[in-house]
Design a protein that fits this description.
By secondary structure, this protein is mainly alpha-helical. The protein contains eight helices and no strands.
Length: 129
């Protein structure tokens, strides 16, 4: 709540974001919070499973240790994205560092659903970044 930005939160809400709770934190603020926390599989999973809070979903990509992320779980996360923002952050902060990033991207690119397919595009853009 310390970082809450009502103006950003209201703008995101008005743009049709699917979350019931939006704090309006910007990426530098999320990055700062992540630096203050210890990466953890349990915390990463808990944050990702909170589909109602925008910042929980985004912060999960910072805090999930890539070395403990299976290929199947990475695919499940990418298939579960709710917005393009989630897909972009997940790809950039987590999935591009996965040893099977190329396979994950290829698999997602073959998806017919728009958001998982977009996750594949986002990952492909970020693999060599």
């Amino acid at each position: 709540m310390t970082y809450r930005n009502g103006i950003v939160a209201d703008a995101l809400r008005k743009s049709g974001q699917p979350y019931s709770i939006i704090f309006g934190l910007q990426l530098p603020q999320l990055s700062q919070i992540a630096r203050e926390l210890e990466p953890s599989v349990d915390l990463g999973r808990a944050l990702w499973s909170d589909r109602n809070v925008r910042e929980s979903r985004l912060l999960a990509a910072w805090l999930f240790p890539v070395e403990e992320l299976s290929e199947d779980e990475a695919l499940a996360m990418a298939r579960d994205v709710r917005t393009r923002e989630e897909a972009d952050i997940l790809a950039f902060r987590l999935l591009r560092r996965h040893p099977a990033a190329d396979i994950i991207a290829s698999t997602l690119l073959s998806e017919s659903e728009p958001l998982p397919h977009y996750s594949g595009e986002a990952l492909q853009r970020n693999i060599n970044a």
